[in-house]
Amino acid sequence: MSLxxxxxxSNSHExxxxxxxxxxxxxxxxxxxxxxxxxxxxxxxxxxxxxxxGDDGAxxxxxxxxxxxxxxxxxxxxxxxxxxAGPKGALVAVGSNGAIVRSEIGNKNWSSIPSGTxxxxxxxxAEPKGALVAIGNRGTIVRSENDGxxxxxxPSGTSSNxxxxxAEPKGALVAVGHGGTIVRSEDGGxxxxxxxxxxxxxxxxxxAEPKGALVAVGIDGAIVRSxxxGxxxxxxxxxxxxxxxxxxAKPKGALVAVGDNGAIVRSEDGGATWSVVPSGTxxxxxxxxAEPRGALVAVGNGGAIARSTDGGxxxxxIASGTTNALWHVTVNSxxxLIAVGSNGAIVxSEDxGxRxxxIASSTTNALRHxxxxxxxxLVAVGNDGAIERSEDGGxxxxxxxxGTISELKxxxAEPKGALVAFGSDGxIVRSEDDGxxxxxIxxxxxSELKxxxAEPKGALVAVGSDGAIVRSEDxGxxxxxxxxxxxxxxxxxxAEPNGALIAVGSNGTIVRSEDDGxxxxxxLxxxxxxxTHVTxxxxxxxVAVGNGGAIVRSTDGGxxxxxxPSGTESELYGxxAEPKGALVAVGNDGAIVRSTDGGxxxxTVSSGTESKLYDxxAEPKGALVAVGNSGAIVRSxDGGxxxxxxPSGTESELYGxxTEPKGTLVAVGNGGTILRGEASYxxxxxxxxxxxxxxxxxxxxxxxxxxxxxxxxxxxxxxxxGRSLADYQNHTVEPHRLKISTSSSVTSDKFELMIxxxxxxxxxxxxxxxxxxxxxxxxxxxYQMENGSDFEVPNNPSIIEKRWFQGLIAGLLxxxxxxxxxxxxxxxx
Length: 829
Fold this sequence. Notes:
Elements: H1 3-6, E1 13-17, E2 25-26, E3 30-31, E4 38-43, E5 49-54, E6 59-63, E7 69-72, E8 80-85, E9 91-95, E10 100-103, E11 111-112, E12 121-126, E13 132-136, E14 141-144, E15 152-153, E16 162-167, E17 173-177, E18 182-185, E19 193-194, E20 203-208, E21 214-218, E22 223-226, E23 234-236, E24 244-249, E25 255-259, E26 264-267, E27 275-276, E28 285-290, E29 296-300, E30 305-308, E31 316-318, E32 326-331, E33 337-341, E34 346-349, E35 357-358, E36 367-372, E37 378-382, E38 387-390, E39 398-399, E40 408-413, E41 419-423, E42 428-431, E43 439-441, E44 449-454, E45 460-464, E46 469-472, E47 480-482, E48 490-495, E49 501-505, E50 510-513, E51 521-523, E52 531-536, E53 542-546, E54 551-554, E55 562-563, E56 572-577, E57 583-587, E58 592-595, E59 603-605, E60 613-618, E61 624-628, E62 633-636, E63 644-645, E64 654-659, E65 665-669, E66 674-677, E67 681-682, E68 685-693, E69 699-706, E70 718-724, H2 725-729, E71 736-738, E72 750-754, E73 768-776, E74 779-783, E75 791-793, H3 797-824
Antiparallel strand pairs: 1-68, 2-67, 3-66, 4-5, 5-6, 6-7, 8-9, 9-10, 10-11, 12-13, 13-14, 14-15, 16-17, 17-18, 18-19, 20-21, 21-22, 22-23, 24-25, 25-26, 26-27, 28-29, 29-30, 30-31, 32-33, 33-34, 34-35, 36-37, 37-38, 38-39, 40-41, 41-42, 42-43, 44-45, 45-46, 46-47, 48-49, 49-50, 50-51, 52-53, ...
């Protein structure tokens, strides 16, 4: 339905609404310990570097031997779907939200490049004359003539999703996509035309075989073929109904396609006829390549690798050394085969694919806790003595030898700068150089140590199993055990504002010290539940949380405690005080409870997740972030009153979260998972657009802009563009920028756009075409109709004509009255 049809019959008409969706969070966390799914591989133009790209903007870089890999920042958190080398050597990767990132040859630094679209880009290629062409959703095609530095959109002739593009031997470009769509260009991608494919099946991939025939493969075993450079196509039988994902040509001419259920089909006559051959696996095969000695290697789900040495006639399954899905395989100039896939998997073969070995990209141990040094160095510790370190706010991490194989539970920076980590069997490791080197220290106990804190005068105090408490007065160099007065496991220790130390543990145990941890005494807690965490709020009250929703509270420095109802029976694992004073505790089944009166009263709030939440922190601008099972991350911007879940990019358990000095949030968890996210805020979003007329007859659009984080005051991030009917039909005419009025806003989230048809050269009664662009850092939305066309706004002449007629009548009446008055006016001689 057009907007013209929608706007008949009343003064104000809804022309667009999106009341169900929630504002995006910008930007989301990105997994920077290289565990993201890696999807595409490419060599630099000089073959010195191998680059893998994937989800969450992941880029892995290998230089020289392809055995050593490092994660590099891509400049985006969007999924990267394909990477290629430009004609002059630059590397270019494309992905979701129209993402394009670029790196000069030999440079590990990547920068985000405007693509001119927010549609997902699936593939990019260099055409023979040097232009780069990227294709994607809704028929999107963007093109660059300067090695990827600048891009412009070109009409594709279709609104169907395009999945793959290639250049055929004589130079024409051919792209394939949804519903059997094929578009073709003979001038380097400037102009495109549709070519009938002979099928309505989805086409995923297209390639040219050595003699010049083009072959495209897709869903339900679909194969179509062209022998005239893609001008016309015909469907051929593949012999399978399995989905085919990829097709390649052997140097001697045989074509091989791979797909679902281990399907492999083969052709020896340029794709005219095909036969099914057994692959040796039932796993989905994603990709296949030929290595220099003639072997074919296909990779797929479950770490599947199939290999053939006779041009694809016979295949055998090969052990890959991983169970992760393998998405892409390539071969370097030395003949080494490299495959990449899920969870950062990288496997390599140096003997034509006979034997494979996994390449270590980082630790796979669970990371339990993390701390931030004053200069911004991040250090994470975990299972088997794992220590990782970052000097750039968590963008890149190095595995550091710790000197122990014990599970490390906690790490802290003591006041004079040394780092100290604690773990099982009383193990302590220490570093004096910001975590670059570590040495084992005697702790004075064999008990597992759970947590450590620095008391106000500088001494370090660690607590753990069997009531263990150890203490150091020399920045962690030497430790001595002190009696805690209990044999209960102690989970957490903190210093309250007046200087007393409080430790909490199993069976409701609370022990307290008033002399910097030298001596301790047990105090009654008011509960027998296990207490897991304790914190002090800004006005001095101390709150401890634990199993069964237990919460106990003290207002006298921990000398006396009383139990308070929490409103939940779920285990509570973490509690923090947010900057404005509210207390928030998190736990099992996504439980979150909140107090605004120093912990005296609590209420349950919805977290937006059912996952177990282990830790919660407040980031510098006040937002609260909690992390937990299955990669759960939830966030609140109103002191914990309301929470929303957002994607983390991982299914790993997340045990801890912290904020580094510049505001970046970093979370750690199982499998060496490290996630990093800049301060994330809900992006503004348009909820509703309505249409009406001003008294002068000009069309007016009223825009309801939801901006919960107030990052778009006075609609400063919102732009509007309009064109007349004639200009809209002429795609080469740029739209006019329209002014959005904020002075006449009814409320802080409602703005008006009055359109003057004269300024747009709009002829009455032709409609006017308008679209909106909402853009803030890391987030860009274009508001149009679902089919990608601009909003059609009526340019209704009847109101203008009515006003003009009314004005004419009023003028005539005025003249008549004036004449009558003059006639009746008496004359004096």
